[in-house]
């Protein structure tokens, strides 16, 4: 398809709008995942099963891993496994960003498309971070304005809010926004927070809060901020660092490195919130309560073992990608969700 998607009537639906399915990759790289990805694979399985209770899941696995994944998922009725080789399993990064458009004004049918971004390896009203998109290893030949216009042209957004920095410890992604904050409904943002003024995350969260509090969305609404406390802080152990094989093509894992652990890195399913649990009982429980209050119509499911994903550089939101329903399917999807939830 030629031309910019927004000019052709496409837009990226909000994550809380109805989904047709969820896409995931399958981890296997020994130079990114602990112990040849075996512990991470267990958490990926738990995540996929949790999401499948609310919507269909497609897991993409390499030729070598396909038999293994198929065997583990063969009794799961709402999960399919397809063979698709890829560099790694961060589907939020490498998978397409889905956009949809409704029929009308010369368009004869509703449609859905995937944006094939130029993936440079971590390196609605839209929120992003300057730390990430203005990083010299990402878009060195583009100005901030050019990047903003690109987001508008491809996602169909009309307003971009720039936050200075991402989450503390998120060097792998240059500070992706999905670890720091996200929209949970129009005009309302969930923000990773800490009350510890000595924590380096505190300054980043305060800075983000200041930016958001002074911002309005594309409809002129003042941004409302809901805080959710980060776990820990958590750090990589010597055993965990030693369990990753450095290949020269990956990020060196060093003991004592702060992990970019955040409860904001969750997935919104059709009627469910699939969120990471890090084994920090106090903060895990607190996060569950905050999410349940923020999404009263959803069931919050905390996935145990999420530390295994953050060791690789992300979490549940990073390993998933929602495929929105085609506009013509929307009424049917909502009806299906209502029947299933009752």
TrEMBL record:
Record flagged with keyword Hydrolase: yes
Gene transcribed to yield this protein: gb14907
InterPro entries found in the cross-reference section: Peptidyl-Arg-deiminase_porph
Keywords, ordered alphabetically: Hydrolase
Keyword Hydrolase: yes
GO MF terms, alphabetically ordered: agmatine deiminase activity; protein-arginine deiminase activity
Protein name: Agmatine deiminase
GO biological process: putrescine biosynthetic process
Pfam family, one: PAD_porph
Source organism per UniProt: Eleusine coracana subsp. coracana
Signal peptide positions on this chain: none
């Amino acid at each position: 398809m030629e031309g910019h998607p927004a000019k052709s009537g496409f837009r990226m639906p909000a994550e809380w709008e109805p989904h047709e399915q969820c896409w995931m990759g399958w981890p296997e790289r020994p130079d990114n995942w602990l112990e040849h990805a075996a512990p991470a694979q267990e958490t990926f399985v738990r995540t996929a099963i949790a999401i499948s209770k609310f919507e269909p899941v497609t897991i993409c696995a390499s030729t070598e891993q396909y038999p293994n994944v198929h065997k583990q998922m063969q009794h799961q009725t709402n999960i399919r496994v397809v063979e698709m080789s890829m560099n790694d399993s961060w589907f939020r990064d490498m998978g397409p960003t889905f956009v949809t458009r409704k029929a009308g004004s010369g368009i004869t049918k509703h449609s859905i498309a995937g944006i094939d971004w130029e993936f440079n390896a971590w390196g609605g009203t839209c929120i992003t971070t300057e730390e990430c998109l203005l990083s010299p290893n990402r878009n060195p030949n583009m100005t901030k304005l050019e990047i903003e216009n690109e987001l508008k042209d491809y996602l169909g957004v009309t307003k971009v809010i720039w936050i200075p920095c991402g989450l503390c410890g998120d060097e792998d992604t240059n500070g992706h926004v999905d670890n720091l904050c996200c929209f949970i409904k129009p005009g309302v943002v969930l923000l990773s927070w800490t009350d510890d003024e000595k924590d380096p995350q505190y300054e980043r969260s305060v800075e983000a809060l200041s930016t958001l509090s002074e911002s309005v969305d594309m409809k002129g609404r003042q941004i409302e901020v809901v805080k959710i406390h980060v776990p820990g802080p958590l750090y990589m152990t010597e055993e965990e660092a030693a369990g990753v094989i450095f290949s020269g093509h990956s990020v060196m894992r060093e003991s004592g490195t702060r992990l970019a652990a955040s409860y904001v890195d969750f997935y919104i399913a059709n009627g469910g919130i699939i969120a990471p649990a890090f084994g920090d009982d106090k903060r895990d429980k607190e996060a569950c309560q905050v999410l349940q209050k923020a999404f009263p119509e959803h069931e919050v499911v905390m996935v145990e073992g999420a530390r295994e994903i953050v060791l690789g550089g992300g979490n549940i939101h990073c390993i998933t990608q929602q495929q929105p329903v085609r506009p013509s399917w929307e009424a049917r999807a909502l009806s299906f969700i209502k029947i299933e939830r009752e």
